[in-house]
Amino acid sequence: MIRATDILIVLTYAMIAIVAALAFERFGLMSTSFAWLMGAFVFLIAGQAHSAAARSIERKAFDDQIHELKASNLSLLEEVEAANARIDTITETIRAEASEREATLTGEVRMLEDLVKRMGNGRTIAPAANAAPQPRQSSVDIETVRDALANNRIDLYLQPVVSLPQRKIYFYESYSRLRDAAGQVIAPASFIHAAEEAGIVAEVDNLLLFRCVQIVKRLTKSDRRIGIFCNLSLRSLADENFFPAFLDFMRRHSELSGSLIFEIPQGVFESRSTAAARNMARLADYGFRFSIDQIRDLDVDIAEMQRAGIRFAKIEGTRLIDTIRNGGAIGGIEAGSIEPRDIAGLFARHGIDLIAEKVEDEATIVEILDIDIAYAQGHLFGEPRPVREDVLDAASEPVRMAS
């Protein structure tokens, strides 16, 4: 369809030609016929000029469109190349993560198989003819213990550790419990005694530690703020067959270092071997922290504890109060030379938080608050309870314990 502007332009050129022809005739510059012929020529020249200008404008517009199209295609190509690069990066990341998960899973399976195999190869050591009388036999058969461990009938019980005076839960202490085929809980003393009789207590300790870490890994998948104390035995710590593989496992899961705290008794820490000290140092290199519990004497080498990566020290609330009342030495400082309110600060200056454990009554809490202890643990704040199965399966919600 002819545009209105084009019609107006043609009419304008026609008017110009008519005016030119009339002017030539009026002023006698040429005859009438020749004047009108000259007007037609003017109209033709003007039309050709307009057509040429219009084509030039259209050509420029077309060239601009082609340039814009080329620029758009180039930009689209760059975006496609960038998207392909991102896809390649994501693919490589997924492959690497899958490979790492496969390697981790393979390592876990191999470690578990090795522990179960070593446990299965254990043999009860018969007493010598002239040996001293043995303790009474455990009421739990060692095969029951082996069966519970091999079939993963291991429950994790958690007990809260609260802040004072708010009593807000900051940590949990974990305890491993075994169940027999009927679902009955096997008392720790019973299965440890049975393992000692069979000569496989180290294997049992290692397997319980490994299971504890596996469960903590699942619990902390959705909430890294959870801090869980996991007991570490001297046998596990010094086992040169088990611990290198365990260290490698922990290295691959160093993200747990903010959530997992390895706990050992004071006696174990103070009598640890060179191998055990070296293994502790390597765990500390991966960012893992340690706690000392079952403290019998507060006159400890705090600087050595700090160097070993100890970040928490647990002492019974009543024992702490008695130590202060009786004027016992604390952290190398003579009795009476430190104010009770400064005890927690003394440990804190070495990066160690004191935790009053086995707190059973409000009267103990009142006295503990007077010496500025930051954390407490005991039945007063909650008994150990098993972790719910659905939490272990999903690991998609904060820790909840069965009532």
UniProtKB/TrEMBL annotation:
<dbReference type="InterPro" id="IPR035919">
    <property type="entry name" value="EAL_sf"/>
</dbReference>
<keyword id="KW-0472">Membrane</keyword>
<feature type="domain" description="EAL">
    <location>
        <begin position="138"/>
        <end position="398"/>
    </location>
</feature>
<dbReference type="Pfam" id="PF00563">
    <property type="entry name" value="EAL"/>
</dbReference>
<dbReference type="InterPro" id="IPR050706">
    <property type="entry name" value="Cyclic-di-GMP_PDE-like"/>
</dbReference>
<feature type="transmembrane region" description="Helical">
    <location>
        <begin position="7"/>
        <end position="27"/>
    </location>
</feature>
<protein>
    <submittedName>
        <fullName>EAL domain-containing protein</fullName>
    </submittedName>
</protein>
<dbReference type="InterPro" id="IPR001633">
    <property type="entry name" value="EAL_dom"/>
</dbReference>
<keyword id="KW-1133">Transmembrane helix</keyword>
<keyword id="KW-0812">Transmembrane</keyword>
